[in-house]
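Quick one: co-fold with zinc ion.
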Amino acid sequence: MRYLSANSIFNGKEFLKEGAILVLDENDHFVEITDPSKVESSSIEHHKGTITPGFVNAHCHLELSHMHQMIPEKKGFLDFAKNIMSRRNSATLEQMIEAATQADLQMQQNGIVAVGDISNIDLTFEVKKQSKIFYHTFIELLGLDPAKTVPMLYYGIGLVNKLKALDLSGSLAPHAPYSCSTKLIKAIADENAKTNSPTSIHNQESEEENKFMRGEKSDFNDLYDFLSLDISWFKPKFKSGLDAYIKELNSGKNILVHNTFSSEDDLRSVHANVFWCLCPSANLYIEDTLPNYDHLLKNTQQICFGTDSLASNSDLNLIKEAAIFYSKTGELELSLKGLTFNGAKALGLEDKFGSFIKGKNAGLNLITNDNKDLKLIKVLC
Ligand SMILES: [Zn+2]
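Sure, here it is.
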């Protein structure tokens, strides 16, 4: 048995009372929380800092790891999207797999134990299979033309079956409202509901997205021109990007990613099962802005965090994302819950990760919050 104490212990949902002792078995599986009077003091390992469960990264794109430092910062979403599309195949397959392998190792060193990772193809499946991290893969689908829904769905289900054959977890995810028809979004949500799996969608990452979905001229018209795609038939008349699809999502688990330009009306229009995944570093990298956290907190506590990819972030360090949120809001408990339990719950993994679970090793991190700055000190197990 191992007996651990620290200046404070956060169990994924709240701080434990002072002096609590965390008991692990010889395989580092959680046994119980006890109090010091029941343990011989010489057998207690004391740690300076706060102990938390392992972190859960609710949004990443391992597949884009080779694009680290390739795209200039703060040039706006249109420039970023054009760069992703035109340069994502600029490396060899071996280089892409090596970059994904290194990114996976980096996440392990940064105390991340589970990841909701977007894949468009099967490039990273083997990396995920070999990793110590638990991956839930979102097979991301695109298709603005409703007529393409069925073939697109079959393509996605084929990749989910490939994940299952490798004993990996996966479900489908629409890319974003400006790249997916509401028909495709509904079909994906219905497909995921059959297996009670989570759905993830990029939401309101730019104000241009809101304009485009209201039917106003926007950067997305330039993007479709750049792609030589005629979308003159597409006449959206929604109130916002989120308004285009929120009714198509069912009451299953749904993760909305970014939310940089979500209004209070948008925030109020969602049902209770939605998790708002925040990726502040990526928002600063691409749009040089952050969501309005005051509006967010007035309407929801269902917050988790994502690193996004190395194409839009200097590193895959989840506590850095929580630290930005914490520095802007002062919400310590919610920042830590977003790093752990909420991320796990958003991905439907709360029986395996995000808190101290009897008989399980959900990871254990030692962190500090000196001067209101959250940092990982070390991974304890
Ligand atoms: Zn993303």
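If it helps, The chain has 13 helices and 14 strands.
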